[in-house]
Amino acid sequence: xxxxxxxxxxxxxxxxxxxxxxxxxxxxxxxxxxxxxxxxxxxxxxxxxxxxxxxxxxxxxxxxxxxxxxxxxxxxxxxxxxxxxxxxxxxxxxxxxxxxxxxxxxxxxxxxxxxxxxxxxx
Length: 122
What we know:
The protein has a three-stranded antiparallel β-sheet. It has helices spanning about 25-30, 35-45, 50-60, 85-115; strands at about 35, 65-70, 75-80. It is mainly alpha-helical. The chain has one domain (about 25-115): Winged helix-like DNA-binding domain superfamily/Winged helix DNA-binding domain (Arc Repressor Mutant, subunit A, Orthogonal Bundle), CATH 1.10.10.10.
């Protein structure tokens, strides 16, 4: 029986990161340092509060972000990248450069796909 290169090695767990739509945006926002939840939300524009909360929780769980809560009124919660999070930032920067470099090719592929997809089915 053959195995795919994507199959996890026998007896070992494979690290799986399931980024949300907002994962890279949050990581890039935290590039400048510690931010509060509402500051992040404001800087990110249209992100729904629930989506940002879920994304931050997943990033914290995976070890990419630290969350520091202060017992103040009103409560204050700060978020910051860990060393692992800074490594993800490197990936985000690489992806951004890839997207810039290949934007026209992707747009052309979409145009071709949409032209074929728009034809009536036989």
